[in-house]
Design a protein that fits this description.
Structural class: alpha/beta
Largest sheet: 7 strands, mixed
CATH class of the largest domain: Alpha Beta
Order of helices and strands: HHHHHHHHHHHHEHEHEHEHEEEHEE
Oligomer: single chain
Number of strands: 9
Bound molecules: S-adenosylmethionine
Strand order of the largest sheet: 3-2-1-4-5-9-8
Distance between the termini: 70 Å
Helix content: 40-55%
Number of domains: 2
Number of helices: 17
Radius of gyration: 22 Å
């Protein structure tokens, strides 16, 4: 005879993994009957954290740790909640405890190193990343973070780094970026590429969204799309975009690999919102974007800005490009820059929006 509580937990877990909002109520009802169900309590705290209910998330993780003091994932996530609330010392303490409790867990090492980087403690961050590499943790992820901390990096972020970063971030992405950091790049890029929508009110476009993530560009441009194709490396981000039902096709692929195999003259608009922060050197991307655009087709994209090099890997693990580099790339690829607007990309990070037209 199957245990009804185990069945209910399995059902709640299936909803949780599909990001179905019904999961929270099932975990709650399970906990009402069985308050000692630590796994249900932990998942419920995760749902609270992703929904931005930080007090409830903190209370949940604290209770998990009271019942199971060696729950390293709860320590890590409690650290993340404290960091979101601005308590960096508390966050550092919990990340370190999580690493000491389970040195095989990647998340607290990545979180601790990133926190130390943002606090300017770059040498300590580098040590956290190199220790993680020595323990045999993900070489793509920690190799890239170590490169960033030591200031010399490869021309783009490794596939595994991008995939893991965004798979982990997908469920809370819009709440964090749009809700907390007032992220507006997709909406503003859409306004820039559409301009006065020459060709009339009813004109529809074939649109390519590079690094589409959860589909915020689709939200902004869906109404003028004849077709809307999204490409992204993160399956979890793509799942969120798929749920919105705006895209005619979504491809799990690297931008450059996908572009190289796409037909020439296929799109009227190509958009890359907050994606070139993961690709430093953009030579081949620009060449391929120009190839897939129709004549007079438009390309809207954003970059974080740097001034002292064509492109640079920053201690944050993201890339920045200089205005001169972008203008040079555009002119060498028959892309006439029609507009550029300085912006705050997210939470005070300086950047630039560009709009170019294929000559
Ligand atoms: C900061 S998010 C922006 C998402 C979306 N464009 C928006 O503005 O909301 C960056 C996205 O680019 C994707 N990405 C980064 N590098 C990529 C690459 N080389 N190929 C495909 N997708 C990539 C990530 O998986 C992530 O979903």
């Amino acid at each position: 005879m199957p245990d009804p509580r185990a069945q209910r937990y399995a059902q709640a877990l299936a909803l949780y993994e599909r990001n179905d909002p019904g999961a929270a109520a099932l975990f709650e009802s399970l906990l009402a009957e069985d308050p000692a169900h630590v796994a249900a309590r932990y998942k419920l705290a995760n749902l609270r954290k992703e929904a931005g209910a930080l007090d409830a998330a903190m209370a949940g993780y604290t209770e998990v740790l009271r019942r199971d003091p060696a729950h390293a994932e709860a320590m890590n996530n409690l650290g993340a909640v404290l960091q979101m609330r601005g308590d960096n010392a508390g966050a550092e303490n919990y990340y370190r405890r999580a690493i000491a409790t389970n040195p095989g867990l990647a998340a607290p090492a990545a979180n601790l190193g990133r926190l130390l980087q943002t606090l300017g403690r770059i040498d300590e961050a580098a040590r956290v990343f190199s220790d993680a590499l020595e323990r045999g943790l993900d070489a793509g992820l920690f190799g890239h973070l170590l490169d960033a901390a030591s200031g010399h990096g490869s021309a783009r972020a490794p596939v595994s780094y991008v995939r893991e970063t965004f798979d982990a971030f997908a469920a809370g992405f819009e709440q964090h970026l749009v809700g907390e950091l007032r992220y507006e790049v997709p909406r503003r890029l859409a306004a820039l590429v559409l301009g006065d929508n020459e060709g009339g009110e009813g004109r529809r476009f074939d649109i390519l969204d590079l690094g589409c993530g959860t589909g915020l560009v689709g939200d902004a441009l869906g109404a003028v799309a004849a077709s809307l194709v999204g490409v992204d490396l993160s399956p979890k981000m793509l799942e969120e975009a798929r749920r919105k039902g705006r895209y005619s096709a979504l491809h799990e692929a690297d931008i450059l690999e996908w572009l190289v195999s796409a037909p020439r003259d296929r799109f009227d608009l190509v958009v890359a919102a907050d994606v070139f922060i993961y690709i430093g050197e953009l030579e081949r991307v620009f060449r391929e974007v120009a190839r897939v655009l129709r004549k007079a087709g438009k390309f809207g994209f954003s970059v974080e800005t740097c001034v002292d090099a064509p492109w640079r890997l920053l201690p944050t693990g993201r890339y920045a490009q200089s205005d001169g580099y972008v203008l040079d790339l555009a002119s060498r690829n028959s892309l006439r820059i029609g507009g550029r607007v300085p912006v705050e990309i997210r939470g005070g990070v300086p950047g630039m929006l560009y709009f170019a037209e294929k000559c």
